[in-house]
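User: Run a structure prediction on this.
Assistant: Running it now.
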Amino acid sequence: MQKPINYLIRVSSPWVVLVGCDLLLAVVAFYVGALVRYDFDLAIAGTYLGAVFPRALAFGVWICVGMVSMGMYRTRQRPRLWELVARSIVAVTLGSLAYLLFFYLVSADITGRGLLAIAMLLATCLLYTSPSPRDRG
């Protein structure tokens, strides 16, 4: 049986913490996008969208998939500023496209172009400006 302290060390590895922080930032970006799009009332957003949290979580997961596909979580990379900006933009775009495909192919629910555009813009800004190990260099 594994000791609890070894489990905590593995869970708190920098990669897991970074993905968790980026997931949280993407979910927050989706919620803020929903608030901005629907006049700062989540009840109205819930009327148009249905449950907001599963959509926000799915958006966050797909953004993290886009970040992984762009190599944003490599521990030995030392990106330049322009490279970090370009990778962040492409990662959020790929993640958003994957999110769209997921919801349009699997579910009949619609998120909306306005909300998705706001969430993409906010996610790009939040993920780029958040302090993280990616910024060392």
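Residues 65 and 130 are 18 Å apart (CA to CA).
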